[in-house]
Amino acid sequence: MKKIKVLGTGCSKCKTMYNNVMQAVKEAGVEVEIEKIEDIQEIMKYNLLSSPALLIDDEVKVKGRVAEVNEIKQFLSV
Prior knowledge:
The chain is α+β, with helices and mostly antiparallel strands.
């Protein structure tokens, strides 16, 4: 099972990224574990300077922008 982490402080872009992840998972019909990380200290551990960020299995896939639903589905199909 893939593990998805959405990193962001809770801004509108971060919320949109989380919603896009939820929609992509629903459309793809895959079972994943999703974690939303909003704590700035926790985000700093990933050494990312721009948010939102999307990690799949602890690999950074997107940072500093909102990933589209179809883009996230492609990440999930690999």
